[in-house]
Write a structure and sequence with these properties.
The protein is an all-alpha fold. It has one domain. 69% of the residues lie in helices and 1% in strands. Strands 1-2 form a two-stranded antiparallel sheet. Strand 1 and strand 2 form a beta hairpin. Helix 1 runs parallel beside helix 16. The longest helix has 26 residues. The radius of gyration is 19 Å and the shape is globular.
């Protein structure tokens, strides 16, 4: 399991549990309870809160793929509505309620929850910090006492660690946020309409990025060229490789055990309808 493919599989297994933060009604309600009205205000506050009351420039830099104007419509206004501390507590409150509904009241106190939390916590403690701002910010937070919340926090640290690495893989190839989405649409992972709405890029920016990628011979009127496909594959391979360190620290046997523990969590989240089709996270399907 401690291979690039194994790192990708563990991310795919764990991401739905993390993503309850975005899609579960309990999490949206917890954000509203601390003054965060609307999906995107809650989203930006919940993800940015570990960094403190940062401005739009820092959020644009660390989140990487959102249009700057889209960010600026919410940040820093969210910090007039609430505080990072309140947003951090709200995300745990929402996850607590969502997990109890999706997995049942007994699961948070189960041996499986405790074991999964211990394994993921070990991996999260091993993340490399240089160049990983969102991972570092999340790892610096106190570990919740309840296993199901400790599991969520550790999975969040690991997914942000992976995202930080993905951003580095894009940056070294001089692929900016909108160009990354044009490539994703060209690869068939999502659609232009969905990505523009979900990340705030207007037509002019999208068309300019398409022109730039055409000049680089990565895309043409038929979609991704052979070179473009190779670039996308290289980004994904580097993302998997850069995500591998924490899983190596955990070791093969414990990674395999963790996969067994995470699989029913993913299945439960999907079955509960909390993993919407067409979401822009890009997590691969599992057989």
């Amino acid at each position: 399991m401690t291979s690039p493919a194994g790192a990708r599989r563990l991310w795919a297994l764990g991401e739905p549990y993390h993503a309850l933060l975005y899609f579960a009604a309990e999490c949206l309600g917890a954000g509203e309870n601390v003054g965060l009205r609307g999906f995107w205000n809650g989203y930006f506050a919940a993800r940015a809160a570990p960094l403190g009351a940062v401005g739009p420039e820092v959020v644009t830099a660390t989140f990487y793929n959102f249009a700057p104007g889209f960010v600026a419509r919410r940040v820093p206004a969210i910090w007039s509505a609430t505080t990072p501390e309140a947003a951090l507590q709200a995300r745990l409150d929402g996850i607590d309620r969502a997990v109890r509904r999706v997995l049942g009241e007994e699961w948070p106190g189960s041996a499986e929850a405790a074991e999964a939390a211990e394994l993921v916590g070990t991996a999260a403690a091993a993340v490399d910090l240089p160049g990983r701002p969102l991972a570092a910010a999340n790892r610096s937070l106190p570990v919740p006492a309840e296993p199901h919340l400790a599991l969520w926090q550790a999975l969040t640290t690991l997914r942000e660690h992976r995202g930080d690495g993905h951003n580095a893989a894009l940056l070294v190839r001089e692929i900016d946020g909108v160009s990354a989405h044009v490539l994703a649409a060209g690869a068939g992972r999502s659609t232009r309409d969905w990505l523009q709405r979900a990340r705030g890029w207007h037509d002019d920016a999208w068309d300019a990025a398409t022109e730039g990628l055409t000049d680089r011979r990565w895309i043409d009127e038929d979609g991704l060229t052979a070179e473009g496909l190779a670039i996308v594959a290289g980004v994904e391979a580097d993302t998997d490789r850069l995500a591998l360190g924490p899983w190596r620290a955990l070791g093969d046997a414990r990674c395999d055990r963790l996969a067994v523990l995470l699989a029913p969590l993913r299945q439960a989240v999907v079955a509960a309808g909390e993993w919407p089709a067409g979401n822009p996270i890009g997590v691969p399907d599992l057989e």
